[in-house]
Specification:
Elements lengths: L3 E5 L5 E5 L10 H15 L5 H12 L3 H13 L1 H9 L1 H6 L9 E5 L4 E6 L8 H4 L4 H4 L1 H9 L1 H7 L9 E6 L5 E5 L11 H5 L4 H5 L8
Parallel strand pairs: 3-6, 4-5
Antiparallel strand pairs: 1-2
Helix pairs in contact: 3-4, 8-9
Length: 213
Amino acid sequence: MSDRHHHDHGAGRVHRHPRQPDDPEPRTDHEFLGMALRALLIEKGVYSAEDERARIELLQAATPATGARIVARAWVDDAFRARLLSDPNDAIESLGIDCLHPMIVVENRPDRHNVIVCTLCSCYPRMLLGPQPAWYKSANYRKRVVREPRAVLAEFGTAIPPEVEIRVHDSTAEMRYMVLPRRPEGTEGWDEERLAGLVTRDSLIGVTNPAVP
């Protein structure tokens, strides 16, 4: 298919223009600046339109099942779990998964519960967890989970005992976080596929725990 299409405006006048990505038309100065920067980077050969399209398709195909697979492996393989906590990107990439961003994996323990937020915008390990939920991007969650994490988790149905420390981790454009939840009791002998079915997106963010078998 040609990269260009045309409209016949009558009297032999034909207006030609290039096909555009399936993004909305820019409306603000920032959006116009973003389009100009994109065009310049492609023109300079930093990346191609095909590279951009492939990355967008990769992100659109991402689901929390990827993160669940990582957690399930950590639950059954102590060596992988240690590697995941000490060098997350290396461990994750050993499973054939591309993180796209530097990662930190934080482990829930009997005396500590972790929860993830991005206080500035909505930075998030999309390749591992799929698209951000609307509440993660909301100003209400971003502000309150830092000030009153125990109350926010209670609203998700997650009651954290007073003696358990809650740590809130702030993702940035340079660093993404993922929670390694505690393995539910009663799952001894389960294989990785069955265990992965207990891991939800929200438990990877830390606002809930894995499903109880």
